[in-house]
């Protein structure tokens, strides 16, 4: 039986303004390879828009909000190509489209475990959303106008929105703590999912206010991307992904 112990990487302390520095650096990285990063954003935006419009036309408009909330949970896993692009730029290379689309490390079993954990959290979030909606109204609102009128003009609707925001925000922050550093960290074959997730939580707890700012910036930028009929995601998503790589490298400077 092995007596080998697992050593966790050191976690740096950052300033509250660090997230803005990551975004500024991400913009510089984006300009070094705009075509592959833009195409990455176009693909993600197109898929998101098709899912949303399918829900609207099927009469399940309320689910657009649920899936939009879930998008925040699964988006870090979908950004592996952007982390790879950030890694290549850090090493002085220029990533191409195949580099950011076909990431070999994305096929790791550890990443599948992380994705499964986020998927389970997402299923829990959707169940909570269903319960909150069912307790708020006995009616099924099938059009955007009906649902928005209920949510913003009735006491039950406002209570539903407030409760959903608070509960969903808590669940989202849990997922954020687990994945914000672990997803880019898993590009390294020397790291497993347990070390990566523990390190991610340590980064958040040690730098709670800066990471809270980073989480709020991600929510704000993603909301802008969703509110612009998903067109804003074409730019927003690559920027967040590249900034997340910079966040990982600053918070865990000694990692491979």
Q: How many DSSP-defined strands?
A: 0
Sheet bearing the most strands, described?
Answer: none
Low-confidence segments: none
Any idea what the radius of gyration is? 19 Å
Count of structural domains: 1
User: What is the mean predicted local confidence, pLDDT?
Assistant: 84
Distance between the termini: 27 Å
Measured by DSSP, the beta-strand proportion falls in under 5%
Q: Helical element count?
A: 12
The gross shape turns out to be: globular
Strand/helix succession = HHHHHHHHHHHH
The helical percent reads over 70%
Structural class by helix and strand composition: mainly alpha
What does this structure look like?
The structure is a single chain. This protein has 256 residues and is an all-alpha fold. It has one domain (18-251). The chain has helices at 18-32, 34-57, 62-78, 80-90, 97-101, 109-136, 144-153, 155-179, 182-185, 193-206, 208-227, 233-251. Helix 2 (34-57) crosses helix 12 (233-251) and helix 7 crosses helix 8 (155-179). The longest helix has 28 residues, at 109-136. 39% of the residues are buried. The model has no long low-confidence stretch (mean pLDDT 84).
Characterize this entry briefly.
The protein is an all-alpha fold. It has 12 helices and no strands.
Which features characterize this protein?
12 helices; 256 residues; mainly alpha; globular; 0% strand; single chain
